[in-house]
Amino acid sequence: MSTSTATPPAETADDSASTSTKVSFSETVASLTGHEEIAIEERFGEPIGRLMASALSKAGRALLFVVETRTGTKAAEAHKTVMAMRLDEVNARFFDDDEDDDADEDTDSPEGKDESPSA
């Protein structure tokens, strides 16, 4: 009996570790393999392209499903996890690609871009 009680906390720890990492929506889409695209279609009923065009929140869940399976989570468990997430939790898992670009621009000084070395 003590073995079955020890298993759920371990799963919970794994779930919290894998569901806290932020990912890029566009980079995750670009990195999809054909096998992952098929898995998305099987689990979510439509190809990722159609989900992105008509059901963006479901597309986000589909991408998080892939992120979870890449960490070793079984497909059925990953699907269950992302479908149980609230929409704000799904959205919070993605960082805004534009914000990342803006952060890079903010670290460069405007003066440094306009000035040329005076040799």
Structure description:
The chain has 119 residues and is mainly alpha-helical. It has a domain of 71 residues. 74% of the residues lie in helices and 3% in strands. It contains 9 helices and 2 strands; from the N terminus they run αβααααααβαα. Strands 1-2 form a two-stranded parallel sheet. The longest helix has 17 residues.
Short summary:
By secondary structure, the chain is mostly helical. 74% of the residues lie in helices and 3% in strands. The N and C termini lie far apart (77 Å).
- What level of helicity do the residues show? over 70%
User: Rg from C-alpha positions?
Assistant: 19 Å
Query: What's the quaternary structure here?
Result: single chain
Low-confidence stretches are: 1-17, 109-113
Strand order of the largest sheet: 1-2
Number of helices: 9
Strand-helix topology:
Elements: H1 2-18, E1 23-24, H2 25-30, H3 34-44, H4 48-54, H5 56-70, H6 75-84, H7 87-92, E2 94-95, H8 97-107, H9 110-114
Parallel strand pairs: 1-2
Keywords, please?
globular; mainly alpha; two-stranded parallel sheet; disordered N terminus; 119 residues; 3% strand
